[in-house]
Specification:
By secondary structure, the chain is of the alpha/beta class. The protein has 14 helices and 13 strands. It binds pyridoxal-5'-phosphate. Pyridoxal-5'-phosphate binds next to helix 5 and helix 6.
Length: 413
């Protein structure tokens, strides 16, 4: 293979059909931002949209805005837009709450639809909130459910006649490894289990087709690749065949069939509407909508091609330039198994990442020793992948990380 150079990367940027999308984001000068998998960048359209909402809709039209500006429709309207990013249909998705809360609602549904089976099957080092929510729900139900955790590549073999639901994150938050959604879903359903996917690191990063996979439930995150802003609302999807088979336990008034009838007893809304609990956070929803609108203008295949090109470029640069520097690749090299990030292990992972951030290359660190680099394909360039690899090599060669200030742990890593 020929040597990779920065000039090759610049040539790929010049030929990149998605290059112009970077101009839609307000990225600071001099920063290489490789953490869009944790907090997506700010779309340029968002501040104006929020200002309009605050000043005109809230400020001038006050409470009439719930009808006049469709605030009350936001969870469903945004849900229908999100559906297009994940292979779902209209009326199948709502934007609501946080990913954690949506996990609670969908997992409760799954357990109730498979009442004679005790096992929630998941991956040992799944994102902790997914496992914590399962623990909390099991304790609340008090029906003897158990959480069974296996390695990622052992999930399919572990599904059996005790498995009520298989709950997996499609793209792993630490390794960037991606499950085969259709194959795992089929294996779960062959054994009579339901399939719940967490799309936190998928939606907006890799093509997702829940309908083609025949999945049962999904949840996802608004502030990562969807660029919805810090603490953006999350979303959930329920396959139409299940929607009305269950009343989710957070039975709040906006999931009621007639909220403004103010009836004393709960009657669930038809369809996906019953998965809403309370009042939508309108400001946050508007920011999320601006992020989602951008992604709706991009071909998912082109997005995936660019994403794979970026991660491949970064891996190739590390392979070529960082031999003997103590790095090892955690992310699969196989394209079909890789999401939108690259994770590298290094025994001094934490201070190395702090030193990189101090140089303007922003990734993040996940305990115990993982350097995480997210390549959001809408606004990341091939030269960014090259420059980030070069900066990492320099930090390691010169031991620029070994300074007291880089060892000090912050609350958020
Ligand atoms: C980011 C992420 C979440 C976030 O959950 P919150 O409720 O928004 O804090 C959940 N699951 C996975 C797999 C994630 O990566």
């Amino acid at each position: 293979m020929s040597r990779l150079t920065r000039a090759h990367c610049a040539a790929r940027d010049a030929a990149d059909p998605l290059a112009a999308w970077r101009g839609e984001f307000a990225l600071p000068e001099g920063i290489i931002y490789l953490d869009g998998n944790s907090l997506g960048a700010l779309p340029k359209a968002t501040p104006a949209r929020i200002a309009e909402l605050v000043e005109r809709e809230w400020g001038q039209d006050l409470i009439t805005s719930w009808n006049k500006h469709g605030w009350i429709e936001l969870p469903r309207r945004l849900g229908d837009k999100l559906a297009r990013l994940i292979g779902a249909g209209p009326g199948e998705v709502v934007a609501a709450d946080s990913t954690s809360v949506n996990l609670f609602k969908t997992l409760a549904a799954a357990l109730s639809l498979n009442p004679d089976r005790p096992i929630i099957l998941s991956e040992r080092d799944n994102f902790p909130t997914d496992l914590y929510i399962a623990e909390g729900l099991m304790a609340l139900l008090g029906k003897g459910h158990r959480l069974r955790l296996v390695e990622g590549d052992a999930v399919e073999a572990a599904i059996d006649s005790d498995t009520a639901v298989v709950m997996l994150t499609h793209v792993h938050y630490r390794t960037g490894a991606m499950h085969d959604m259709a194959a795992v879903t089929a294996a779960a359903q062959r054994a009579g289990a339901l399939m719940l996917w967490d799309l936190a690191h998928s939606a907006g990063a890799v093509p997702v087709d829940l309908t083609a996979a025949g999945a049962d439930f999904a949840v996802g995150c608004g502030y990562k690749y969807l660029n919805g802003g810090p603490g953006a609302p999350a979303f959930l999807w329920v396959a139409p065949r299940h929607q009305e088979r269950f009343v989710q336990p957070l039975s709040g008034w906006l999931g009621h069939a007639a909220p403004f009838a103010f009836e004393a007893a709960y009657r669930p809304a038809p369809g996906i509407g019953r998965y809403v609990a309370g009042t939508p956070p309108v400001l946050s929803m508007a920011a999320l909508e601006a992020g989602v609108d951008l992604l709706l203008g991009v071909s998912p295949a082109a997005l995936r091609e660019k994403s794979l090109g970026l991660t491949e470029t970064f891996i190739a640069a590390i392979d070529q330039e960082a031999q003997g520097l103590g790095l090892s690749l955690l992310t699969p090299r196989d394209r079909a198994r890789r999401g939108g990030q690259v994770s590298l292990r290094h025994e001094a992972g934490y201070p190395v990442m702090q030193a990189l951030i101090a140089r303007g290359v922003i990734g993040d660190f996940r305990a115990p020793d993982i350097l995480r680099f997210g390549f959001a394909p809408l606004y990341t360039r091939f030269v960014d992948a090259w420059d980030a690899a070069a900066a990492l090599v320099e930090v390691l060669r010169q031991r620029g990380w070994d300074r007291p200030e880089f060892h000090r742990r912050a609350a958020v890593t």
